[in-house]
């Protein structure tokens, strides 16, 4: 994820205020902001508590008061302890009734199994995301292992030392998401979910994850954007070994275009950063950012054919560790694939088994 703009260009109703550990900040009636630590450069995730009521399964005519949680944090000791503080200090002696997960990435999915078991709560998420989480827990993920190593090598990242570390990351996902709940309720694009007194419309998004779900309460001017719309960093958009020819960047841009009816007055509740207003401004910044990166790559591919690994300095001006490089490679390939699908570059496999891209001079007619 990259910085794409000066954060002050947006409106931050809470300024620099952040929720204290184990505490919550109310951002709308019945909507509370939690912040949990992450052990990465991106050092936090925002989670959301929504006051809710659902039928009691033992007495369906009776309603149970409680909470819906949106996203969970990773499964580690620190996050469990933070949640335990929330149980004691925030939940007002009410249970968690539902765990709603926007997408399968570890910081969103990690503790879903624990929360669901602890509270006998229901898991709600999109089917594609749920099944992807199951696969990733079994080791069939895009975060490490032999197939991921071979995919990166085919795009020019061939350092033996780095490739050994990529292979060893086969357990990267399951280390933070050890299990997935056995059952779930399906979320689909356009579906309306009633949480408490609000109706939230599901908006699916592609490119960042298989089928990310954001939640929009139009009447209340609230959007839980997950990772699809972040205030001060760009959402990671990557191509992975399981779908090596995908046009993830175009899918992501198309998903943003589907959010262009959301007004700038809407309060956006993102997974990283601070709640903000200015959705259309932020969407325009994303679009400009990716257009600039595509232009930069197109210029860099003029002349000698280049591979994704050689082009990392074009997109990323800072030093990258191995963890960051795995995401940077996925993002570089996503941008190159977008140019390739648009007919603006040619892709060829050279004698060393590495894909190289070269400007074709003219876009494809179709």
From TrEMBL:
Transmembrane segments: none annotated. SUPFAM superfamilies: Metallo-hydrolase/oxidoreductase. Residues 44-272 form the Metallo-beta-lactamase domain. InterPro entries: B_lactamase-like_C, Metallo-B-lactamas, RibonucZ/Hydroxyglut_hydro, Sec-metab_biosynth-thioest, WH-like_DNA-bd_sf. Pfam families: B_lactamase-like_C (PF21221), Lactamase_B (PF00753). Gene3D superfamilies: Ribonuclease Z/Hydroxyacylglutathione hydrolase-like, Winged helix-like DNA-binding domain superfamily/Winged helix DNA-binding domain. This is MBL fold metallo-hydrolase.
């Amino acid at each position: 994820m990259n910085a794409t703009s000066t954060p002050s260009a947006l409106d931050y109703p809470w300024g620099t205020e952040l929720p204290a550990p184990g505490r919550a900040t109310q951002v709308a009636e019945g909507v509370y902001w939690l912040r949990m630590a992450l052990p990465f450069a991106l050092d936090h995730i925002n989670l959301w508590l929504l006051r809710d009521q659902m039928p009691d399964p033992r007495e369906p005519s009776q309603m149970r008061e409680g909470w819906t949680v949106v996203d969970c944090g990773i499964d580690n000791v620190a996050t469990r302890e933070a949640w335990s503080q929330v149980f004691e200090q925030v939940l007002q002696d009410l249970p968690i009734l539902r765990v709603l997960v926007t997408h399968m990435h570890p910081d969103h999915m990690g503790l879903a199994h624990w929360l669901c078991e602890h509270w006998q709560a229901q898991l709600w998420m999109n089917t594609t995301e749920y099944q992807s989480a199951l696969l990733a827990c079994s080791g069939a993920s895009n975060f490490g292992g032999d197939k991921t190593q071979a995919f990166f090598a085919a795009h020019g990242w061939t350092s033996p030392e780095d490739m050994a570390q990529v292979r060893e990351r086969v357990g990267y996902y399951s280390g933070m998401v050890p299990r997935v709940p056995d059952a779930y309720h399906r979320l689909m694009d356009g579906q309306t979910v009633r949480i408490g007194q609000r109706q939230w419309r599901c908006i699916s998004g592609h490119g960042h994850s298989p089928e990310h779900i954001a939640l929009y309460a139009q009447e209340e001017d609230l959007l839980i954007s997950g990772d699809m719309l972040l205030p001060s960093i760009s959402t990671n958009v990557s191509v992975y070994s399981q779908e090596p020819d995908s046009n993830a960047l175009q899918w992501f841009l198309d998903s943003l275009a589907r959010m262009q009816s959301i007004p700038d007055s809407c309060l956006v509740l993102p997974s990283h950063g601070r709640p903000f207003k200015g959705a259309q401004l932020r969407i325009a910044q994303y679009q400009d950012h990716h257009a600039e990166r595509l232009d930069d790559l197109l210029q860099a591919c003029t002349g000698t054919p280049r591979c994704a690994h050689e082009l990392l300095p074009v997109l990323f001006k800072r030093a990258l560790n191995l963890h960051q490089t795995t995401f940077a490679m996925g993002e570089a390939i996503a941008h190159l694939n977008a140019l390739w699908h648009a007919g603006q570059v040619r892709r060829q496999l050279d004698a060393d088994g590495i894909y190289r891209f070269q400007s074709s001079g003219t876009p494809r007619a179709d």
